[in-house]
């Protein structure tokens, strides 16, 4: 069984994370966006999930006072459906709790049944809708949240 490790993302991870981003999203974040999140955003912490020194997933967390917001989460397509997303999400949820979060929220595409199903396993429930949220196709986002 390969070793799985979750740790904070560093600037040295950007090359691998950008490849993962391109493999995962129609409108991937740029290097500049990640740079700003890691270096300049005092509310943001990003985590990577790696196996055998290869980053196969990442997740972003914003902590503002006692509220946590998941900015994004991605797992390489070849590793999806193998519980890596759940492992990473559980870890980040625990980090939010450790940092004093009372509630956690995120946005998810209306069409993303796999993600919605996973979030429900962690107790997240729909709390609203953001119309035309995703700029690649104007798809709506469901806001989901959970009391921690």
TrEMBL record:
Its main location: cytoplasm. Keywords: Acyltransferase, Cytoplasm, Ribonucleoprotein, Ribosomal protein, Transferase. PROSITE patterns: GNAT. InterPro entries: AcTrfase_RimI/Ard1 (IPR006464), Acyl_CoA_acyltransferase (IPR016181), GNAT_dom (IPR000182), YpeA/RimI_acetyltransf (IPR050680). It is found in: Cytoplasm. Its EC number is 2.3.1.266. One of its GO terms (cellular component) is ribosome. GO terms for molecular function: protein-N-terminal-alanine acetyltransferase activity. Residues 4-148 form the N-acetyltransferase domain. It catalyses: N-terminal L-alanyl-[ribosomal protein bS18] + acetyl-CoA = N-terminal N(alpha)-acetyl-L-alanyl-[ribosomal protein bS18] + CoA + H(+). Belongs to the acetyltransferase family. RimI subfamily. Acetylates the N-terminal alanine of ribosomal protein bS18. This is [Ribosomal protein bS18]-alanine N-acetyltransferase.
């Amino acid at each position: 069984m390969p070793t799985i490790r979750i740790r904070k993302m560093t600037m040295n991870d950007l090359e691998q994370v950008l490849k993962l981003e391109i493999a995962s999203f129609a409108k991937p974040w740029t290097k500049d966006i990640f740079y700003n999140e890691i270096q300049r955003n005092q509310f943001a912490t990003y985590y990577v999930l790696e196996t055998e020194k290869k980053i196969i997933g990442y997740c972003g967390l914003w902590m503002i006072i006692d509220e946590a917001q998941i900015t994004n989460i991605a797992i390489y397509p070849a590793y999806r459906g193998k519980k890596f997303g759940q492992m990473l999400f559980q870890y980040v949820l625990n980090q939010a709790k450790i940092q004093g979060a009372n509630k956690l929220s995120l946005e998810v595409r209306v069409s993303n049944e796999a993600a919605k199903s996973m979030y429900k396993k962690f107790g997240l429930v729909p709390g609203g809708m953001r119309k035309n949220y995703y700029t690649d196709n104007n798809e709506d986002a469901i806001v989901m949240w959970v009391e921690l």
